[in-house]
Amino acid sequence: MPNTGLFYLLEVTGDASPHDPHVLQRLSFVRAQCLHCHAILSLSGAPGLVNVAHGAAVLTCERCSNRQAISGARFTDFARRVQRGLIPAGHEATPSTGAPVEGSHLAGPT
Fold first, then answer.
1. Quick check: helix, strand or coil at residue 52?
2. Omega before 47 cis (within 30°)?
3. pLDDT beyond 60 at 91
4. pTM here?
């Protein structure tokens, strides 16, 4: 699901696990809306996006410092739902700010 409690996921990009290509192993980019201050965040590294084990990450809002650890399973579930069309991607949906929502991408093992 896109709503993590403190953030609303808009786009997730990362490296797929070599053992299961449908599981995110490491995130390279997250676009999300902070549900506290409503800022749209484009996170690609620390301090906003900090990868931890098994595809999990800590997101931190650059504007209000809202912070949440999110499991790898949550990011993988989001990516799968976008790919299956269960969550609108691209121009099909917009967050509350009116900005277009991007899709979700799994990159093959490198």
1. coil
2. yes
3. no
4. 0.75
pLDDT of residue 89: 54
Separation CA 35–CA 14 (nearest Å): 23
Distance of CA 97 to the CA centre of its chain: 17
**Cβ atoms 59, 43 nearer than 8 A:** yes
**Widest pairwise Cα distance in the chain:** 38
The C-alpha atoms of residue 37 and residue 61 are separated, in whole angstroms, by 9
Q: CB-based burial of residue 77 (10 Å sphere; 0-12 exposed, 13-18 middle, 19+ buried)?
A: middle
Distance CA 98, CA 15 (A): 29
Give residue-wise pLDDT tens across range 39-73: 999 999 999 999 998 889 999 999 999 999 999 88
